[in-house]
Structure to design on (498 residues):
């Protein structure tokens, strides 16, 4: 429709015409035309059918309030209000080409659930995935710590830079004088060969057998361990609590390690060492000796860059898509850090933590979202110095739920409320209404608990969202996050931020 419309007649002119018409009609057929004439006056006098519709529209009923589970500190409160509201999509954000206008009537509020004390300093953002309409925002544009929701950005970056089929190699080179070098390129899943939290991972034994086949009876005198694929000077971020390593959630981020540097390779949470590269060298020496490589049992281990490009053995990780499937459901920090650094190197950068903001911004921009302003300190989300807004996460999730440019790998890996991954035991009691309907990544660091993903709402609408509970305890934050998410599920497309 053109922006230019015919000039309307004045209201008095239209009223006079209408009254004249009523009088003439009433003279001929008094009873049925009196009502019709009055209606015409109302319509013309108020500017059209809006007045009639407003006068006859029934008052919306309040939606059913959820009752709190006795063990929870917050409830999924979704309440209707009679005032429609819409919030425009911020400039610079991607909206699907078939985006429709704002919903005709949005009357359901989550204000009560979003005000729960357990949410601390709450930040939240909700969108209609199909139309791009912003349904709710509370501090949603404020960049803040993400916890492990960061792993969704890390995954999207890895898929953009590496692709789902990429495999990470570990090689052995032959040097002069009986020396061989074990060279890491960031595959933390490389295994000693026993129990492992990474089923299907390549093993040191496979490398050792290849070395034996190449060397025959020639002895090995020195084993070089080379983790110089990136500089290990920033292997530990100063904002990470040391307990993350000693308890066993996070290793030093080096390009060469075995079984994620776990003391117990079969346990996801297991103490890590202060020298992953040294541990890898010891384990490789054992594997060489077990393979029958002459001199290996007594070989000296030296950490440095290899001096040779003569590769005599190679193994590769499983595809990046498989690694994502191992990382996201269980929130594996080790794989997240490795994918971040490998993405940096493969993008042409230097693999440092300092490079990540630029690497992520460039990669994420390829999905049609605006990553300006994000600050990336690590790949796992451990650092409280990361800064990403709920707004950005919700916009990225529009692309994730649509499976754009390979992001279906991430969508399929997201935990599901009450069913899988880190959400398997969540959404209980009153919040169970949303079980099986929320696909989202959880986040947990000492100063924040977070949740970001997409919701298949009660009315069939798909919503994308991110909720941050900052500064509250985990015990209080988790049920509060579940409650505000369940309330959002109940509201669906009727959700209003007012």
């Amino acid at each position: 429709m053109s922006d230019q419309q015919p000039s309307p007649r004045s209201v008095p002119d239209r009223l006079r015409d209408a009254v004249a018409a009523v009088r003439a009609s009433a003279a001929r057929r008094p009873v049925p035309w009196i009502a019709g004439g009055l209606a015409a006056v109302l319509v013309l006098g108020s500017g059209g059918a809006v007045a009639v519709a407003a006068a006859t529209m029934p008052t919306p009923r309040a939606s059913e309030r959820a009752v709190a589970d006795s063990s929870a500190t917050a409830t999924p409160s979704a309440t209707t209000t009679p005032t429609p509201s819409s919030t425009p999509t911020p400039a610079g954000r991607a909206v699907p080409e078939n985006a429709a206008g704002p919903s005709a009537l949005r009357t359901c509020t989550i204000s009560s659930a979003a005000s729960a004390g357990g949410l601390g300093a709450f930040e939240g953002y909700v969108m209609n995935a199909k139309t791009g309409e912003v349904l709710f925002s509370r501090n949603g544009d404020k960049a803040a710590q993400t916890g492990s929701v960061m792993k969704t950005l890390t995954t999207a970056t890895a898929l953009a830079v590496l692709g789902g089929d990429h495999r990470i190699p570990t090689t052995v080179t032959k040097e002069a004088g009986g020396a061989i070098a074990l060279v890491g390129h960031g595959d933390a899943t490389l295994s000693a060969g026993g129990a492992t939290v990474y089923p299907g991972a390549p093993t040191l034994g496979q490398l050792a057998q290849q070395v034996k086949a190449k060397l025959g009876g020639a002895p090995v005198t020195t084993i070089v361990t080379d983790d110089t694929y990136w500089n290990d000077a920033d292997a530990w971020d100063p904002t990470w609590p040391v307990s993350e390593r000693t308890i066993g959630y996070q290793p030093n981020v080096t390009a060469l390690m075995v079984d994620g540097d776990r003391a117990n390779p079969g346990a996801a949470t297991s103490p890590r060492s202060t020298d992953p590269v040294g541990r890898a060298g010891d384990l490789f020496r054992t594997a060489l000796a077990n393979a029958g490589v002459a001199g290996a049992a007594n070989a000296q281990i030296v950490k440095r860059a290899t001096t040779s490009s003569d590769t005599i053995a190679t193994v590769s990780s499983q595809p990046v898509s498989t690694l994502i499937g191992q990382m996201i459901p269980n929130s594996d920090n080790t794989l997240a850090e490795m994918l971040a650094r490998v993405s940096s190197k493969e993008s042409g950068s230097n693999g440092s933590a300092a490079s990540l903001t630029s690497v992520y911004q460039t990669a994420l921009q390829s999905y049609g979202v605006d990553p300006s302003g994000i600050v990336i300190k690590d790949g796992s989300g451990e650092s409280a110095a990361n800064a990403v807004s709920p707004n950005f996460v919700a916009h990225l999730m529009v692309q994730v739920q649509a499976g754009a440019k390979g992001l279906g790998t991430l969508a399929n890996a997201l935990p599901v409320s009450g069913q899988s991954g880190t959400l398997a035991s969540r959404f209980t009691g009153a919040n169970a209404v949303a079980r099986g309907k929320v696909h989202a990544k959880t986040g947990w660091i000492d100063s924040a608990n977070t949740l970001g993903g997409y919701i298949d709402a009660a009315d069939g609408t798909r919503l994308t969202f991110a909720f941050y509970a900052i500064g509250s305890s985990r015990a209080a934050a988790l049920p509060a996050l579940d409650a505000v998410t369940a309330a959002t599920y109940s509201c669906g497309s009727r959700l209003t931020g007012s």
